[in-house]
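Weekly puzzle thread! Below is a chain. First person to post its structure in token form gets bragging rights.
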Amino acid sequence: MTDLIALKPQLENFRFSQRLRVRWAEVDMQKIVFNAHYLTYFDTAIADYWRTLALPYEETMQALGGELHMKKSSLEHHASARFDDLLDVALQCQAMGPSSIVFRGAIFHGDELLVTSELLYVFADPITQRTRPVPEVLRQILLNFEDGQAVLTLKTGHWVDLGWDAMEIRIEVFVDEQLIPLELENDDDDDAAFHAVAYNGIGQVVATGRLLKGQQGQGRIGRMAVKRVLRGSGQGAAVLASLQAEATRRGDKELALHAQTSAQGFYERLGFKARGDVFDEVGLSHIEMFLEL
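Winning reply:
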């Protein structure tokens, strides 16, 4: 792991950081952040750290047969944050013992270091709350992330190979979450499509999508699904990039898709442009979007 034992940590030393803005409710009568809120900032960032690792926290801990309990937290204050400041909350997994994980953190306002922290967690049995060894798979995920390695495994190919895994996340998102009837979710196009499925470090399916061959050099993206608690942390973008790469490889000139309007911003950030008016599809508002290749 990268060593952060330094007199003054720098933001660029951390692979993970979360940006937040100080709210009025978080400042005291001196109009600086009340000291207890800095622990809230770090706790909020820890949740996003797990998302960045493509690990849905609750499901991950259930799969690993344990929970992480806070054992110790400490803060060292260097300067104060004020109302409306834009802060970067950075975290790094610094060390691991047989049953413990230590995170070191820092909060920055621009280049100014405001607060440093040490957060000590222990892995414990969820029922007895007695400590148990940190699972080797979790230990390796943390080591790999801090060493700069990818957090996802992407598999691409045909429905016969990836269909069961793709349907797992599609049913979770489209059927269970969005209440789309199963008979409308599953169609004959799957057999002809190129599929991409993303897995996290413990083998859970976290995202999927498919690519169909359209007319006149157009590729059509569809069935994009990302596990709800992980949205906004890069898994969907990784799947879309793999589908775009396949479209480019086979010579498509344009990618098109029907985006739910709630996801329009996601596709726009990746270069897609809206085309035409909003329309209804399976009871949800959609808009067609395209990307020139």
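Puzzle host: Confirmed. Bonus trivia for everyone else. Residues 95 and 102 are 5 Å apart (CA to CA).
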